[in-house]
Amino acid sequence: MLSRLLSLFFFSGFAAIIYQIVWQRVLFTSFGTNIEAITIVVSVFMFGLGVGSIVGGYLSKMFNQKLLFLFMLIEIGIGLFGLISIPLIKYINLLTFEMAEWTLPFIIYSILFFPTMAMGATLPILVTYIYKITNSVGDTVSTLYYANTLGSAIACLITVGVIFVFLSLSVATYIAASLNFIIAIVTYLYLNKLKA
User: Contact at 8 Å (CB) between 79 and 181?
Assistant: First the structure.
């Protein structure tokens, strides 16, 4: 059971890094590639993950008996956002093209707030679920974080070395969204197995 959850979190990290790389490229195309824009995009992404970890901790307490169901819903939400993310970023760029440069962090954060927060929320939710089984916070956090980071690292290589070479940015987001939906389906099947 633990290995199954670790593999799900591995692929969750895999999908997340595809999104991050794609969104960075689309945002750079839309808002510029100077050092300020790069710093803003990376900072906003990391800030969203941090906020998400706080939100995930809160949700873990609120929905303590529905943690895997919550994880499943979050993965679906990330996947749905992924499907519309590129057209959404381009549309918001058109709406905000004439706005002052100091508004850039707020514009980018408004675009990436939901998905980055959702991604950040998954770790505390799974930690809470697995802790109930293992009773070891340190082992649980380190093992989940390892699986997620390994997925991200491998995704970096595959995204830049394979996906971007042969496929478009849109197809890359479809791949990431498909991973999110597969994670959600596997989680749903696992929940049904637990109920049986």
Answer: yes
